[in-house]
Write a structure and sequence with these properties.
Thiol Ester Dehydrase, Chain A; MaoC-like_dom; HotDog_dom_sf; elongated; 146 residues; MaoC/PaaZ C-terminal domain-containing protein
Length: 146
């Protein structure tokens, strides 16, 4: 689940509307278990079919913070600095059901520069999609380009 390298951005060359290359991430059940262990999130709705469907879910679902982490990791790699994302906020309008197969699901991250702020900061529009539907909306993401 690594992000492909892109050229490190320069504040002076960026303009609103600049689009980052979109990036796809494959998420499988084993990723949910690994993330759950690392995050100490042992909620069985993220790995057990019976529990998830018992709560009315279509099956185990990806953790929201896993989805957010993939998107933010993409931005960090783009900026070339792990401390570059200085502010963010988002919401999860849809669930990410993950089937128990080798294919899992594919999440697509899309981002564009929305506004240049006080140098070297930019506001970025960020969305994560599953089958074209937004599963993560980040209306406020501020990236400090060094």
């Amino acid at each position: 689940m690594t992000v492909q390298s892109v050229t490190r951005p320069r504040y002076d060359l960026l303009e609103p509307g600049f689009r980052l290359p979109s990036r796809a991430f494959r998420v499988r059940r084993k990723d949910l278990v690994r993330y759950g262990g690392a995050a100490r999130d042992y909620n069985p709705i993220h790995w057990d079919d019976r529990t998830a469907t018992g709560f009315g879910l279509p099956g185990p679902i990806a953790q929201g913070m896993l989805t957010m982490g993939l998107a933010l990791g993409y931005l960090v790699e783009w900026a070339g600095d792990p401390g570059a994302v200085v502010d963010f906020g988002g919401r999860f309008p849809r669930l990410v059901p993950v089937p128990d197969d080798d294919a899992g699901v594919e999440l697509t991250v899309e981002a564009s520069v929305a506004e240049k702020l006080e140098p070297p900061k930019v506001r970025v529009n960020l969305a994560v999609r599953l089958d074209g539907a937004k599963v993560l909306l980040m209306p406020k993401v501020i990236v400090a380009l060094r």
